[in-house]
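Forum > Structural Biology > Help requests

Title: Can anyone predict the 3D structure of PhoX family phosphatase?

Hi all, first post here. I have the sequence for PhoX family phosphatase but no way to get a structure on my laptop. I'd be grateful if someone could post the structure tokens.
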Amino acid sequence: SDAQAASTSAFSFPEVTAGVDADHHIAQGYDADVLLRWGDKVFADAPDFDPLNQSEAAQERQFGYNNDFVGFIPLDGADDRGLLVVNHEYTNDHLMFPGIVTIREVEETAEDGSVTTTQEIEVAEADESRVNIEMAAHGGTVIEIRRVDGKWQPVLDGALNRRITAKTEMELTGPAAGHARMQTLADPSGRKVLGTVNNCAGGVTPWGTYIMAEENIHGYFLGTLPAGHPEAANYERLGIPDSTYAWGNFHERFDVSKDPNEANRFGWIVEVDVMDPASTPRKRTALGRFKHEGAESVVAKDGRVVFYLGDDERFDYVYKFVTAGIFNPDDRAANMDLLDDGTLYVARFHDDGRVQWLPLTHGDGPLTAANGFASQADVLIETRRAADLLEATPMDRPEDIQPNPLTGRTYVMLTNNTRREEANAANPRVDNAFGHIIEIIEEEGDFTATTGTWEILVKCGDPSIAEVGATFSTETTANGWFGMPDNCAVDADGRLWVATDGNSMADTGRTDGLWAVDTEGEARGTSRLFYRVPVGAELCGPFLTQDMTTFFVAVQHPADGGDDWDGHGRPSYYEDLSTRWPDFDDAMPVRPSVVAITKQGGGRIG
Ligand code: FEO
Ligand code: CA
Ligand code: CA
Ligand code: CA
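Reply #1:
Sure, ran it for you. Structure tokens for PhoX family phosphatase below:
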């Protein structure tokens, strides 16, 4: 009953009604205020956003596109002032630029001779100017924000404000830095790389640096590797090149026929020292190279720091990295290279409920020269192949992974895998359209442990459809269930919040949103809807501040699957429904935005 749920649940907010429309919706008693939109100024002297006259120079000074990870780093220990760090994962050109979309009618003849017509969108290939705007709209933003009279606002003259783009100079560090496979025409040192791309989730380290994970890097490369090139198998394992973007037409490092090693310099974890806006971001090769979803961390009992890492692809793996050094809470500088030395592990989930963490260490087991790994650099550059040889467990798309320091448990979002034909205990559904969440319990609550146990917290999807096989608690309402868990957060009280990606696309009658999920006691497996996004969007970056009074969330690609910039109808997840959120102004395109959620009158969220 409701009374029972109320008595055992860690949450008490009134649930939002699930559904789909052009606006976002927050639980009654809360405000959801747009804080930063694509194109907003990041610096006092930045130009105003002019969507019809976009330029690289303007975009480099403005908030980027498709906000994903969001973190908050307090300044001087204050609750009311800090740095918001935000990833800009990718660009949706059909929503960003007018006049570039053509709708084609495609006729298909079925076996019985009947003809159906569908609409397909064609986006004109980017010219050099558009490519450079795209590159400037990628990366990340560091921006000071302040809370004034209970509401957050950007501080445009913040001394630490910074835009990071696909052209920002970065340093490769750790075991693979400088290796011959990391050397390019433009950089014979193998240590200097320009930019970061497809920064999905991320993290904030215990020492206050900003982590950007490089995820779907394959789309940025085009061309054909020279015949017989030694990186052919390595690139194929990652789907490189995928030619989604036209960058390689104007920047030869993204053309694998011209500078074949450049793609080895992407797919890493990037660390940014936000306290120095002139600092060179570092690509930390010790944490491996794959389609990094994020890197959330926890300080273990012995002071080493453990980073949980997902590789977001069907049948890829769950990893963790354990630093060799000890976190020093009293000396920030002493922690600045902790990510260059440690052990990377990959998970094997046994059917009997045990989990084993297998070290990806050169010389161990099959990771030897006989298998093409001459050094730790080779193991890291081809992390996936090394993990294949260790017989890690292929998972249903590992996304964000969040340790809970209060309980010693860790939550793994497995978003979906409709290509799974054979189930196992940790990936229990074939054709897994809605995903599931695994809870890992490390041995003796020690996050550095190499063994532990696991169980499934919840199999996602609509519990009222028996074939789906969802396992939300019976207290979960028709609004409370979700599919496709993606990003997540554990708040200061140890409560789990899950953001989703794909509910619009799957035609579930609901958009993506933020759900509160009970993990303890009788209410375990109960989910309720706190916030939902406009049509076409996914929800990213949920981050609840330490004082529990502000939830920062990132509304990514609103209107995707709906109308383009010019209002052309196009194949839509929901026919006739699109949005110009958050401005609702015909002169303004739809804009991905970061939203600050607060309780009306102030107070603790949830
Ligand atoms: Fe960028 Fe795996 O989501
Ligand atoms: Ca994600
Ligand atoms: Ca997270
Ligand atoms: Ca996603």
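DSSP finds seven helices and 33 strands in the chain. Helices lie at 2-8, 56-59, 93-96, 128-137, 232-238, 376-381, 383-389.
Shout if anything looks off.
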